[in-house]
UniProtKB/TrEMBL annotation:
Presence of keyword Iron: yes
PANTHER family: CYSTEINE DESULFURASE (PTHR11601:SF34), CYSTEINE DESULFURYLASE FAMILY MEMBER (PTHR11601)
Protein keywords: Iron, Iron-sulfur, Metal-binding, Pyridoxal phosphate, Transferase
Organism: Lactobacillus hominis DSM 23910 = CRBIP 24.179
The protein's name: Cysteine desulfurase
Cofactor needs: pyridoxal 5'-phosphate
Catalytic activity from the UniProt record: (sulfur carrier)-H + L-cysteine = (sulfur carrier)-SH + L-alanine
Length: 385
């Protein structure tokens, strides 16, 4: 039993940074103006929004006018995908993505297929990476969009964004990156990587929920998803959430001051603690994906042989540890992970016997050590083989 409830599900959401909470609280108390109003209250709110926009633009080497605040990663992804499809269908109807994208990318793609678009889903290998040769082959003149995540949310694989960007820049397509998992864990430069559209969510980086942004490269054509007023540089209607945006700006400032290599090194040590404990006690497991090469170490996905995912999650939860499944678990029924299915096939035992552990800025070594010991005890108790 953990000495306290220990949170190791940071790929799902992260606890808010106390500095972010303080900033949001201050704004709610002291600044209630509408950022579109012309009077002093409105101008003050506008300054807050503009400052946060500058801070966020800096994190990805963008210009502040290219940052559009949204309700989060899902809206940003939908806006990028549908907006591009609507604006560019006269050029072509081919879109390229991968088999392991987030549902907020895959579900819009399914709808576009129903509307007559040709969507190509790139395969991935057993480390969760695409084959650039397949992308080259599929990148034809009628391709209007290439959409890929920066970091996979289940296995941590980092997509070769620079190489994809180099390929796409010489084509007719826009390059969209779902950076919800990558933001804060790896460095991304939208200029160097030739990225046209990029989606981010605040709650993955110790900011508030229901808030994100879409980076839209200046000069590209994207249709608006929502219609209304002229907020967000006339590209996203709705009164801005000024306190939340202020908090998001603080979260971005904190990110700008962190060395991503140091963060990855810390998470890599956390992975080793868990794996060493499993090895020491001869637990039968395998890593889903890889912990070497182009991966973000904030995610560790394990196949615990003979231990059902639902049993593992339930037992760990009762012991005080929060992790998630390699599969999506709902009310006791398991839906196979589309990511693990793409990597290992629909018949793999991994689909029903995997868990995802994910670290964050506030995860401590003691948290990880306690978890590793509890994980071993659980596997010894539950393993069927």
């Amino acid at each position: 039993m953990a000495t306290k409830n220990i949170y190791l599900d940071n790929a799902a959401t992260t606890p808010m940074d106390p500095k972010v909470i303080s900033k949001i609280n201050d704004e709610m108390i002291n600044d209630f103006g509408n950022a579109s109003s012309q009077h002093a209250f409105g101008r003050k709110a506008r300054q807050v929004v503009d400052q946060a926009r500058q801070q966020l633009a800096k994190t990805i080497n963008a210009h502040e006018k290219e940052i559009i605040f949204t309700s989060g990663g899902s809206e940003s992804n939908n806006n990028a995908i549908f907006g591009t499809a609507r604006a560019r269908q006269n050029i072509g109807k081919k879109i390229i993505t991968t088999k392991i994208e987030h549902p907020s990318v895959l579900n819009p793609m399914k709808r576009l297929e129903n509307e007559g678009f040709n969507v190509v889903y790139l395969d991935v290998d057993q480390t969760g990476h695409i084959d650039l040769e397949q992308l080259k082959k599929e990148l034809t003149d009628d391709t209007i969009l290439v959409s890929t995540m920066a970091v996979n949310n289940e296995v941590g694989s980092i997509m070769p964004l620079q190489k994809i960007g180099d390929l796409v820049k010489d084509s007719n397509a826009y390059f969209h990156v779902d950076d919800v998992q990558g933001f804060g864990t790896i460095d991304i430069d939208v200029q160097k990587m030739h990225i046209d559209l990029l989606s981010v969510s605040a709650h993955k980086v110790n900011g508030p929920k229901f808030l994100g942004f879409l980076y839209e490269r200046d000069g590209i054509e994207v249709s608006d998803l929502l219609l209304g007023g002229e907020q967000e540089l006339k590209r996203r209607p709705g009164t801005e959430n000024v306190p939340g945006i202020a908090g998001f700006g603080v979260a971005a400032k904190e990110l700008n001051e962190l060395d991503k290599a140091d963060i990855q090194k810390k998470y890599q040590e956390f992975q080793k603690i868990i794996l060493n404990e499993l090895d020491k006690d001869q637990i039968d497991y395998e890593i889903n994906g890889s912990i070497n090469g182009q991966v973000s170490h904030h995610v560790l996905n394990l196949w615990l042989k003979g231990v059902g995912t639902y049993s593992a999650l339930t037992n760990l939860d009762l012991a005080g540890f929060a992790v998630s499944g390699g599969s999506a678990c709902t009310a006791g029924s398991l839906n196979p992970s589309h990511v693990l299915t793409a990597m290992y096939g629909a018949d793999s035992d991994r689909l029903a016997e995997s868990i995802r552990i994910s670290f964050g800025r506030f995860t401590t070594q003691q948290d990880v050590e306690e978890f590793a010991q509890a994980l071993v005890k659980m596997c010894q108790r539950l393993a069927k083989r």
